[in-house]
Amino acid sequence: MVPPSLFVLTGAGLSAESGLGTFRDKDGIWTKFRVEDYATPEAFERDPLKVQGFYNARRRNLQDAKPNAAHKALATLQSTWTSLGGRVTLCTQNIDDLLEQAGAGEVIHMHGELKRAWCLACDSRSPCDEDLGSESECFVCHAVGDLRPDVVWFGEVPYHMDVIGARLASAELFVSIGTSGSVYPAAGFVRMARDLGMTTMEINLEPSDNADAFTATAYGPASETVPAWVEAMMSAI
Ligand code: BV8
């Protein structure tokens, strides 16, 4: 029997226990850094080195981070569903690669990836493990100083919205993991799912801004709640 098609949206709470900061919790990233100074195209235009420094520090922090039990459980769920002819869409707001490190196949990074650089001279995107700055050379066109982090800032259009729309339309269960539900369009996906008649589940440390939109909930640290949910899904097929 083919298992039900799942659409899983993840946020910073999925990677919190891997040591990567969340944004709006107590001591979150946006409580220390103003969005307007670091996560908008205008900020980059105004002071590129300041913005590059912010992402260079987060990229370095990611080098030492490891996937936690929640990343591993989602990778197992996706590979099991695929082996049975089913589909788990892993759509993440996160710019880390911990789901891929945990063995996930397809991961849709709607807000881009910290380990990719975007060349504003030739529009190419390339893997990037190192600091970016005014001396950085494009791996493709060799222009110097035209590389920015390949992440989606506020006011920029999220990536893969067409694929996300198609996957949402064909899913049977929508699960949101580790997100505060405060950034759009991602925060609007649960209402789209409900309008499509889907069962919706929130797995989070605590109720999010969107909590009332969910028909099922599980609260607690992702490294506990996600493996428990995956185990329940696996035993039901
Ligand atoms: C768009 C990448 C149009 C960079 C991010 C004015 C001008 C322009 C746009 C707007 C505007 N006003 C409003 C908007 C829209 C704007 C928006 O939503 N603003 C908000 C603030 C109101 N959105 C945009 O600009 C987007 N673009 O609208 O373009 C468009 C739209 C549709 C179609 C076509 C065109 C672009 C938004 C993307 C911005 N980039 N990130 C970077 O990472 O530096 S967003 C940023 O917030 C984060 O990166 C993250 O991706 C996102 C959501 O945060 P969360 O992941 O939810 O993290 P948070 O800390 O908030 O919550 C963590 C949760 O985890 C908590 O609930 C906590 O309880 C839980 N948790 C903690 N620990 C654990 C845990 N759960 C489980 N276990 C644990 N251990």
Explain this structure to me?
This protein has 237 residues and is α/β, with parallel strands linked by helices. It has nine helices and nine strands. A six-stranded parallel beta sheet has the order 3-2-1-7-8-9, with helices on both faces. Strands 5-4-6 form a three-stranded antiparallel beta sheet, covered by helices on one side. Helix 8 (189-195) links the parallel strand 7 (173-177) and strand 8. Helix 5 (69-83) packs parallel to helix 9. The radius of gyration is 18 Å and the shape is globular. The N and C termini lie close together (8 Å). The model has no long low-confidence stretch (mean pLDDT 97). Residues 11-13, 16-17, 22-25, 28, 39, 93, 95, 111, 151-158, 161, 178-180, 182-185, 204-206, 208, 221-222 line the site of ligand BV8.
Apparent shape: globular
Provide the β-strand percentage band.
15-25%
Contiguous helical run count: 9
Our Rg estimate from Cα atoms comes to 18 Å
According to DSSP, the number of beta strands is 9
Low-confidence stretches: none
Global mean pLDDT: 97
What percent of residues adopt helix (DSSP H or I)? 25-40%
Largest sheet: 6 strands, parallel
Main-sheet strand order equals: 3-2-1-7-8-9
List the keywords.
237 residues; alpha/beta; 3-stranded antiparallel β-sheet; 9 helices; 33% helix; 19% strand; binds ligand BV8
Q: What topology does this entry show?
A:
Layout: E1 6-10, H1 29-32, H2 35-38, H3 41-46, H4 48-63, H5 69-83, E2 88-92, H6 98-101, E3 107-109, E4 112-119, E5 125-127, E6 147-151, H7 161-169, E7 173-177, H8 189-195, E8 199-204, E9 216-219, H9 222-235
Parallel strand pairs: 1-2, 1-7, 2-3, 7-8, 8-9
Antiparallel strand pairs: 4-5, 4-6
Helix pairs in contact: 5-9
This protein binds ligand BV8.
